[in-house]
Q: What sequence folds into this?
């Protein structure tokens, strides 16, 4: 039987760990509320922008923009993927799910260039000796619009120079229950605008000033930035939710362990007392028989 | 009064929603005026000055703001403006704008790739526009 001191040390240790997990839970929850709030401010803009871009694209027919496929059958040669992971671990399966999706994509597309957001992912690839794009060290913590613009202009720079001609983005979507999504960012594809997403087909005729292509070129940067920003915020929220769940589970486990250990501790303590009493009574009895 | 509904959304916040008498927006083809019952149209907005005569509680109020690139959509007497950012004169930090102006000028001098050049150019335009709005319209009774 383990001594009661050993058990007491363990109880203290677990209680300390539980304090940490509870604190992490609370921190994650407050951070998430803040980021969610920010997203609420930006959502109307990006939703409206998305709707307008979609509508213009449908109305436009073929456009002479480099962001669109010249024809639907063109096969891009160099593909890049933005992989959004967390900066830290301890978030359940969150990071692994994203990395698994990235693995799947790179199996399908050999020579996939990886643009990794978040320290965890970079660390993972460094350990697995898998090359990632240099000078792309963005943090996943507290996504801002500014950060998304930086990411966007970096991606577009490589797109412009022809280093990549197709970009995927792998992120975790909060809206569909923290599911990892692999979506193509650029170039836009006609087939990608699914009609069911657009219940109100262009009923009214519009005049375009100066032209559809020029308007699209004017806002494509904002559009991509918006997409990246939403993906970053969604991923960050998913990360925090995963961490909250993980920490909650850890807290529950700690409670369970504490209950069991406390029982064991009481038992050990009781056994020690019983043993002592037995010793004392046995000793007293011996003395008494000696005296007689 | 002939009015139309104006809603202005910036990337970081919904900016304005309400009735409007007339609106002048900076487009790629120059300043463009919009009155009520305008033809349905979509236009490209460039960095510049947006002027709106708003109709609030039966009174007219003129509002001026610096906008960045985006689009304007007019549909059935509803005007929707989507821009990256929009700022009232009193919200503009002129020191920051000047700093950005200098940074953009420096970046333009460097031999850079096409996209870097156009990004710097866009930054320069935004900074100039901010300073223009700030110096011309601050503390004026609108």
A:
């Amino acid at each position: 039987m383990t001594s009661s001191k050993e058990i007491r040390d363990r109880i203290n240790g677990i209680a300390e760990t539980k304090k940490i997990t509870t604190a992490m839970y609370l921190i994650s929850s407050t951070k998430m509320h803040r980021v969610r709030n920010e997203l609420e401010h930006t959502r109307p803009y990006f939703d409206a922008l998305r709707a307008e871009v979609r509508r213009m694209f449908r109305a436009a027919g073929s456009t002479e923009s480099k962001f669109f496929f010249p024809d639907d059958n063109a096969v891009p040669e160099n593909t890049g993927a933005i992989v959004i992971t967390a900066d830290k671990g301890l978030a359940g399966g969150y990071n692994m799910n994203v990395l698994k999706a990235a693995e799947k994509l790179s199996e399908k597309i050999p020579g996939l260039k990886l643009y990794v957001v978040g320290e965890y992912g970079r660390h993972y690839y460094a350990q697995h000796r898998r090359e990632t794009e240099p000078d792309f060290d963005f943090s996943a913590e507290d996504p801002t619009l500014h950060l998304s613009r930086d990411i966007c202009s970096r991606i577009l720079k490589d797109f412009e120079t022809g280093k990549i001609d197709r970009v995927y983005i792998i992120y975790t979507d909060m809206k569909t229950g923290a599911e990892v999504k692999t979506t193509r960012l650029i170039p836009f594809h006609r087939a990608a605008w699914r009609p069911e997403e657009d219940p109100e087909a262009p009923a009214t005729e519009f005049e375009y000033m100066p032209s559809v292509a020029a308007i699209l070129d004017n806002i494509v940067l904002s559009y991509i930035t918006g997409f990246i920003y939403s993906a970053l915020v969604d991923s960050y929220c998913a990360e925090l939710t995963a961490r909250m769940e993980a920490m909650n589970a850890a807290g529950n486990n700690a409670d369970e362990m504490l209950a069991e250990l406390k029982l064991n501790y009481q038992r050990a303590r009781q056994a020690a007392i019983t043993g002592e009493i037995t010793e004392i009574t046995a000793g007293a009895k011996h003395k008494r028989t000696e005296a007689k | 009064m002939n009015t139309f509904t104006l809603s202005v959304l910036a990337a970081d916040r919904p900016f304005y929603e309400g009735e409007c008498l007339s609106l002048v927006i900076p487009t790629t083809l120059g300043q463009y005026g919009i009155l009520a019952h305008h033809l349905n149209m979509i236009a490209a907005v460039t960095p510049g000055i947006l002027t709106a005569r708003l109709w609030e509680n039966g009174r007219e109020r003129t509002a001026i703001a610096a906008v960045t690139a985006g689009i304007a959509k007019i549909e059935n007497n509803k005007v929707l403006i989507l821009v990256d950012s929009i700022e009232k004169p009193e919200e503009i930090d002129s020191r920051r704008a000047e700093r950005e102006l200098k940074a953009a000028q420096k970046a333009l001098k460097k031999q850079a790739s096409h996209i870097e050049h156009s990004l710097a150019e866009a930054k320069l335009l935004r900074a100039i526009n901010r300073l223009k709005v700030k110096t011309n319209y601050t503390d004026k009774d609108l």
Notes: Residues 92-137 of chain B form a domain with the Single alpha-helices involved in coiled-coils or other helix-helix interfaces fold (CATH 1.20.5). The interface with chain A takes residues 9-14, 27-29, 32, 39-46, 69-71, 73, 75-76, 80, 82, 84, 113-116, 119 of chain B (CB under 8 Å). Chain B has a mean pLDDT of 86. The two ends of chain B are 20 Å apart (CA to CA).
